[in-house]
Design goal:
Layout: E1 3-6, H1 14-17, H2 21-26, E2 30-33, E3 54-63, E4 71-78, E5 86-88, E6 99-105, E7 111-118, H3 122-130, E8 137-142, E9 148-154
Amino acid sequence: MDFRILGLDPAPFRPMFTMTDERLRELGVLRVRIDSPRSAPDRITLDDAEPGETVLLLNHVHLEVDSPYRGTHAIYLRENGGERFDRINEVPRALRGRMLSVRALDAAGMMVDADLVDGDRIEPLIERLLAQPAVSYLQVHFAKRGCYAARVERAPEPPVSV
């Protein structure tokens, strides 16, 4: 089964990238300089910020549903990160080599299934979870810290030509 992995839409966050540190603090957001490699996975590009780069650290509602599974957590956003990750059957670098929690949710935002997986072996788990008819989409979280990482959906069917 083909799948689509999505980073966050950058549009709602763009105004923050030009705010002063003082204004960001008023909003509960921190501007942080990265010192270590693979310590700040960007949720838009789904790549890691490099040492020396700055990121915004903020709380984000990653599951805005009216269910007990509604969720928020801290995320990193690179200030000059680039385009939103939106690819079919491609796992982004930020998910590789990390322990992940993959949560399968139905249309009402209720958790149907979940499992842990090494990011280097995520594809079979994605396929298994998306094969369940009750599952609408998956959320991937970094298991160690619990932070939201990305959304996974079934890939759209290609148009049929006649």
